[in-house]
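Following the same procedure, sequence and fold were stored together, as reproduced here:

>
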Amino acid sequence: MKQTTLRIIFLVLASALWASMIIGCNTVRGVGKDVEKAGDHIQHSTR
């Protein structure tokens, strides 16, 4: 029973994360740009 509850919670959280990504990035190109910007920030913070 507890494992089923944890699985449901995980699926809900994963779905919410996926939905927020889709809403924030309307296209695959938008996702690519967001990932590129994140990479740029990581590179600049390590310098």
About this structure: Residues 2-45 form one domain. The longest helix spans residues 2-24.
